[in-house]
Amino acid sequence: MAEAAEQPRDEAPLEAGAEEAVKIICLGDSAVGKSKLLERFLLDGFRPQQLSTFALTLYQHRARVDGKAVLVADMKVTQKSFNFARKFSLPFYFVSAADGTNVVKLFNDAIKLAVTYKQNSGDFMDEVMQELESFDLEKKSENLSDQEESYPEEKPPSS
Ligand SMILES: Nc1nc2c(ncn2[C@@H]2O[C@H](COP(=O)(O)OP(=O)(O)OP(=O)(O)O)[C@@H](O)[C@H]2O)c(=O)[nH]1
What we know:
Family: Belongs to the small GTPase superfamily. Rab family.
Helix content: 40-55%
Distance between the termini: 67 Å
CATH superfamily: P-loop containing nucleotide triphosphate hydrolases
InterPro entries: P-loop_NTPase
Bound molecules: guanosine-5'-triphosphate
Number of strands: 4
CATH topology: Rossmann fold
Strand order of the largest sheet: 1-2-4-3
Order of helices and strands: EEHHEEHHH
Mean pLDDT: 74
Radius of gyration: 20 Å
CATH class: Alpha Beta
Pfam families: Roc
Protein name: RAB, member of RAS onco family-like 2A
Strand content: 15-25%
Keywords: GTP-binding, Nucleotide-binding
CATH architecture: 3-Layer(aba) Sandwich
Number of helices: 5
C-alpha cells in the first residue's frame, strides 16, 4: 500500500468543504487482496465474489486530518509492483479484508501520510507539476477575460 495523490476528476476543483485532496494507490501482485481491502474500507464489507475494481475506484472518500477536511479524490488499484514501500520506509501492517483487522488504521494512516507528503514535498517533479497546474488555471482565466473583451455581452434592444 502506498500513498501519494480520470479526467475529468483529476482536473476537478476541490469539492465543497475539502481543503486538501490526495490520491491513494494500492500496489501489489495479482490476487493479494488490494480490491478487497478497498472494499472493506469504503463499504465496510467483504464479499467473497469480486466486486468490480473499477466500481470501487469511483468512490470518493472524505477524511479529516489535523482538523482539515481532506478529499481522497482517487483510489487506484494496480498490479504493478514497485520497491515503493521500502524506499519510503512505509510501515508494515498485518491486515485482513475478511474481518477488517487494521484496514481503517491502514487507510487513515495512508491518508495522513499523503497529506503530510503533499504539504512538505521537496520533490522537484511535484513542484514542477504544481507550477504547471496553477499555470494552466491562470491561462484559462486569462483566456476567459480575453473572450469577454472580444465578445462584449449583447444588450437586449431597448424598447
Ligand atoms: N480469506 C480471505 N480472503 C481474501 C482476503 N482478501 C482477499 N481475499 C480473497 O482473495 C482473492 C483476491 O482478492 P482481490 O481483492 O480481488 O485481489 P487483488 O489484489 O485486487 O487482485 P487483482 O484484481 O488480480 O489485482 C479474492 O477471492 C478474495 O475473496 C482476506 O482478507 N481473507
